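Repro:
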Amino acid sequence: MEMDYKEHIEKALFYIEKHLFEKLTNELCAKSCGYSEYHFLRIFKAVTGYTPMDYIRKRRLTEASKLLLETDMSLEEIAFNSGFNSIENFIRVFHSEHNVTPGLYRQTKSSLHLLNPIFITTKIEFKQPIIKKMDEITIIAYRFKTNMRDRHYDIPKFWNKYHSKKMYDNLTRLINKNRVDIGYCKVISDEEVYYYIGVESEYKDIRKLDLFTLTFPKSMYAVFKSPKTDKYNFVEMIHQTWNYIYVKWLPDSDFIQSSIYAFESYNESSRSYSEKIYIPIKMEE
């Protein structure tokens, strides 16, 4: 029965892609796969994790982001070509989703949490990590608060804000070497999650800059590289790599995580679209 549900919902997903920039309603999508609207809404959310309208909105924003980087079309042209009824609505929805305006995104080319068609799936090959000892690392960082429910959406927004200009420039002035940004997530409870973005530095006078100091202890680390992808799939690939580490690699390995200080690092200017993830480990007893 579950496979029948997925096959039927896939019909709706193909219908949505075919008519993505036209007027779409829950009723039309439900009719495309033979369900009543009531059952369609419930099953679509169960299969995809999104409501139909949320999925459509995210898909339109994804295609709009591609037009922003790959064409010289005006914002107004992109808005109407991506299914939005006005440029004002497009800018508002884009900023609400990504915490950056379409115009600024076009300038900075930062990595967004986008949504490609979920029925197009490929098997991802994750490489085995490098196991190595690492000395203590101290970073200076910005911090923001989120929760377990919203962290996957809030964290990419915080990265966009960080790279937008002022925060990035503040840290750049404090270091004199090639910049590698470090991200760290600290979970206190389901409703209290803190995410830090910063750089490795010995700089101590941070009182005027609203910064925090974090120290990752000397430890053995498993160092993973997320599979290389493109700018449109980068954020989703990071999420899948973290999921692979905790759902597959750690349970099947001879190691356990030795501390809470798992972190990620990436050089945004490299445009390599593969980041490193560091998991502190020790042999399982």
